[in-house]
Amino acid sequence: MSLSQPGDFTVSRRSLIARLLGFGAAAAMGKPGLATIAPHLVGQWNFGRLPLDWQPLEVATGDTLLVKARVAGSPVEAVLDSGSGASIIDLSLAQTLGLANVERRTISGLGGKAPVRLIRDVDVLFGNRTRRLPFAVVADLSALSAAFGRRINMLLGADMFVENCIALDFGQRQFALMPTGSFPGGADWTPVALGHGAKQELYVSASIGGSSPVPLMIDLGSSAALMLSSTYVDAHGLTRGRATSTAALGGVEGVATVDVFTTPKLSIGGLSAENIPTLGNRNWLPTSTVGNIGLPLIGQFDAIFDVTAGFVWLRPPASGHRLPMLKDRSGLGLTASPMGLDVVHVAANSPAAKDGWTAGNRIVAVNGFPIDADYTHGARWRWRFMPPGTVIKIKDQAGRDRQLKLADYY
Question: What is the pLDDT of residue 41?
Fold first, then answer.
């Protein structure tokens, strides 16, 4: 089904809730990293004589790509999300802009379905190019904004990748938008073919733990480095003999509890990554793929997406230019607000579980700093990802001072 003929297609928003609900962009136990590293000259992006108009790319809380855009002429802060089959506009923004032609539809997330609305013929300025989308999804993103602690007006989905070649320089926190077909590749770049699933999802083939290659969504909008169908996990014994825990995963279809464990190795296009934090999703719906690769893993490379040409190009960046691979060591699944951090999930066998934290508790201060509107703008959110053994001082809603000793629990 083409994007110009909307129906029951895949649109999901995972990272905003998944990160705060207890998983986040994570590094697994052991030393995460690339098993295959090739040196290259930093800064050369091989577009020949075509000038690159680099624009700022914010990597918010270490795992969410935020860009400036305009929808119907109005400036917005948008999440770049190749895992959504279509772009999503927040309901309140659509109402403010007076966008009409509303149609009701059902969309599929990774673990369920949800009713939404559609609007037709929407102009979106992204980078230096304006695209008229045949349609966009209208959905209430307030819960996702609350989980993130910042207002999110729009998700730029896979439809914004069509006819565009998008260069992502994570190390320099910048992106460039070029015409499709303008990137010729090069000796330092590894081309990886992009497939299209039955419901618009983009996927690549990758080998997990040395097994035969399988199709995995390539999903800039996911804060999980790797997510796999529990059916695939069970069939291949990926959790056998490994420590596991739980996390909460959210999207337009709601919130579900999933498994968390470590995958020892994944190979894609001859490039490999080791000790990969993984979610096991027991409600995986897509039929064309068995899982997805998220931003923490993609961010270990320089990347160029040309969906229309059918390729994503990857290369290992210079040392220190990768996105940080963070691991939650608290076990607290949280949503943020200016008044505190609400505990909505406590991971099994985690420090938080052993210390008696329960869903419904609220954190009002961490290490002496009150939770306020700036919590996700600076570096305060990093406390959950500090090294094991770090003692965090937490004040709860009852005014009690509690201490939480961080540890690796999966």
Answer: 41
